Amino acid sequence: MKLKKYLTEATGMGGDGLSKAKLGTLIRKKIGKKAQGIFKDDYWKGVKAVFKAFDDLDLNWQTDKVETQTNNKENGRMYDTKVWNFTIFWEDNKGKHKKTHGVVTAHGAGTNDQPMEKYDVSVILGL
């Protein structure tokens, strides 16, 4: 359901904005279980599910930076991660233009030789 349609139908707010708490709730509900579990694919299905949720809610968002991080321990590689930093632009329930930053991280869950062969996903919203 599109964000403005949700605001109009479910809250009676007429699409004029929403609180930070409501924005967070909407995003968490929309992502739901789509980004939970262990993924084994070459095209970041779990990460794309998060960004599809943003699109389904008709949010104005952008990816700011994508980076791969290798974390080493004394005896070799421990795990790898791939991190997508993003910004969501929105209008609050007082008509103020806001932006919030967040991070989607794919955590390597594969073997030491192929840590990103499998991965799980976490999402942090800076609300």
Task: Offer a few descriptive terms.
single chain; 3 helices; elongated; 127 residues; four-stranded antiparallel beta sheet
Helical stretch tally? 3
Largest sheet: 4 strands, antiparallel
Radius of gyration: 17 Å
- By secondary-structure content and strand pairing, the structural class works out as alpha+beta
Say how many strands there are: 4
Oligomer class: single chain
Shape: elongated
Residues in helix, %: 25-40%
How do the helices and strands follow one another from N- to C-terminus?
A: HHHEEEE
The largest sheet has its strands arranged as 1-2-3-4
Query: How widely separated are the two ends?
Result: 21 Å
Number of structurally distinct domains: 1
Uncertain stretches: 11-15
* Average pLDDT for all residues: 83
Strand content bin: 35-45%
